[in-house]
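Revision sheet: structure tokens.
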Amino acid sequence: MIGNGSDKIVGGSKKYVLGRFNDLREFYRGASQRQLLVVLWWD
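Predicted:
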């Protein structure tokens, strides 16, 4: 998931990924509370 240069992430890659995961959870929780629709699309 995180390749070359991941050793330079302050606090380590686990802390970085966990932070991004928590950001996404907070976003989706807020959207749900506002009864907003979230669409995911990838090719």
